[in-house]
TrEMBL record:
Organism: Kryptolebias marmoratus (Mangrove killifish)
Compartments where found: Secreted, Extracellular space
Transmembrane regions: none
Name listed for the protein in its UniProt record: trypsin
Origin superkingdom: Eukaryota
Domain Peptidase S1, residue spans: 1-238
């Protein structure tokens, strides 16, 4: 996260750290005890499940603290329109955690799911939402960090589709946020949440997906528009529950 501040432990309890093989990393969001939402581009090289490790309740990058819960991966799934040839077009994937002692995530003050958005909860342009992650602190950074958080404002599709911003790269499945605000997601934050609160309930409005650099003037962050995939998420998560 560029331009953020260190989060207090437990303030983003849905944050998942996803270690992919020896050197790849992404974030994700816990949406139910056994399911994580992340970005498809994190997994499109099809890593072996045995190469994936998910840590919940983590505060410092690569440090498994006292509140951490660590899981292997049972499977991961892409939406049917996802294509490896253009991984940011449908940049969402679901990860099912492997049960440990018969269960997945245990709810604690440091581990709790985020709500999925519904079609009736609309967040207007200008609304301030939260991004969080362990990624680089600036564009030419090289180290991952203690969990950072920052507030970004949602911007309109028209603004984001301006030729001087991202033009026709912005589809109906993307949301832009953070124009002109000196805060942005950066490398290593991918897959993590753009969380928008309504009252004291946080919703997974977006998934950190792409953007030109980090915090560049006129180049906001681009996020997957999660509400467009909620029916798919529910069909996958519920279908699996029924076969238990
Ligand atoms: C990345 O490389 C990345 N500024 C994610 C988000 C943004 C830039 C890079 C947005 O994962």
């Amino acid at each position: 996260i560029f331009g953020g501040t260190s989060a207090l432990p437990g303030t983003h309890p849905w944050m998942a750290a996803i270690y992919i093989g020896p050197s790849d990393f992404c974030a994700g969001s816990l949406i139910s005890s056994c399911w994580i939402v992340t970005a498809a581009h994190c997994l499109f090289r099809n890593p072996l499940k045995s190469q994936l490790r998910v840590v919940l309740g983590q505060h410092r990058f690569n440090v498994t603290g006292p509140n951490a819960q660590t899981f292997g991966v049972d499977k991961y799934i892409f939406p049917k329109h996802f294509s490896v040839f253009n991984p940011t077009l449908h940049d969402i994937a679901l990860i099912k955690l492997k049960k440990e002692d018969g269960r997945c995530a245990r709810k604690t003050p440091f581990v709790r799911p985020i709500c999925l958005p519904d079609k009736t909860t609309a967040f207007p342009v200008g609304y301030c939402c939260a991004i969080s992650g362990w990624g680089h602190l600036y564009e030419k950074g090289s180290n991952y960090s203690t969990l950072q958080e920052a507030g970004v404002r949602l911007i309109s599709d028209d603004t984001c589709r301006d030729p001087a911003v991202y033009g026709n790269h912005i589809t109906a499945n993307m949301i832009c946020a953070g124009l002109g605000s000196c805060v942005d997601a950066c490398q290593g934050d991918s897959g993590g949440p753009l969380a928008c609160a309504a009252g004291d309930v946080s919703f997974l409005h977006g998934i950190i997906s792409w953007g030109e650099g980090c915090g560049r003037p006129g180049k906001p962050g681009v996020y997957t528009r999660v509400v467009n995939y909620v029916d798919w998420i529910n069909s996958v998560v519920k279908a699996k529950a029924r076969t238990l």
